[in-house]
Amino acid sequence: MKIDNKPRCAWADSAPDFPHYHDTEWGFPVANDQRLFEKLCLETFQSGLSWRTILSKRENFRQAFENFDVKKVALFDDDNVKQLLENKGIVRNKRKVLAVINNAKRALEMIETEGSLAAFLWRYEPDENTLPPPETQTTSPESIALSKALKKRGWQFVGPTTLYAFMQSMGLINDHSEACFMRKDIAEARKGFKRPR
């Protein structure tokens, strides 16, 4: 499903809404806590499903979860859970809904102790010199370590594969294929990116 003649990562041409997401979001480094939290939540919902399913429902998720405002989601109660499980625009999985609410509470604790979610997450950025070729793995030593660290703090649905996908999309690594026209743009964005501390 080629939309133009630009060489992209193989997955980017597999669905109509993927090229735009690939070209404008995937892999650009992010330091904004709300965006990082949103992606962690969406990765939770993606577990066992395709990213295409989640991306097509992303606006519905944003509406349902108060634009993933950590403070607001942390206050969700049984009534909110009931409404979410009746919302046909999102993935209605009770375990995942409860995990997102739990993770919002854990995120608030982390922001208080670490200064920001970003400061903690970016500590797990891999050394570029140790990375294998792009698109060759689904976990890394760093995603495994981050998974253990988050689980120790009470986070749920944060396995190493989920977190590797998170790291790819939020720019902690540049996993665009060698032939992809975006690889250079992402490398430049990462070079100019101020790591949160």
Note the main attributes of this structure.
197 residues; 53% helix; mainly alpha; zinc; single chain; metal-binding; Endonuclease III, domain 1
How would you describe the overall organization of this protein?
This protein is mainly alpha-helical and 197 residues long. The chain has a single domain (31-170), classed as Hypothetical protein, domain 2 (Endonuclease III, domain 1, Orthogonal Bundle). The protein contains eleven helices and no strands. α9 packs across α10. It is globular, with a radius of gyration of 17 Å. This is 3-methyladenine DNA glycosylase. It comes from Marinomonas profundimaris. Keywords: Metal-binding, Zinc.
Give the helix/strand layout.
Blueprint lengths: L17 H7 L8 H14 L4 H6 L1 H7 L5 H5 L3 H8 L8 H21 L2 H5 L19 H12 L7 H10 L13 H9 L6
Helix pairs in contact: 2-7, 2-10, 9-10
Overall mean confidence score, pLDDT = 96
For CATH, the homologous superfamily is named as Hypothetical protein, domain 2
Structural class: mainly alpha
Q: How many discrete structural domains?
A: 1
The largest β sheet comes out as: none
Low-confidence stretches: none
Number of helices: 11
Question: Into which percentage range does the β-strand content fall?
Answer: under 5%
Question: What is the molecular shape?
Answer: globular
Beta strands, count: 0
Radius of gyration: 17 Å
**Top CATH class:** Mainly Alpha
CATH topology label: Endonuclease III, domain 1
- The termini sit apart by 41 Å
* Residues in helix, %: 40-55%
CATH architecture: Orthogonal Bundle
Give the helices and strands as they follow along the chain.
Answer: HHHHHHHHHHH
Pfam family, one: Adenine_glyco
Protein name: 3-methyladenine DNA glycosylase
Keywords: Metal-binding, Zinc
GO molecular function, one term: DNA-3-methyladenine glycosylase activity
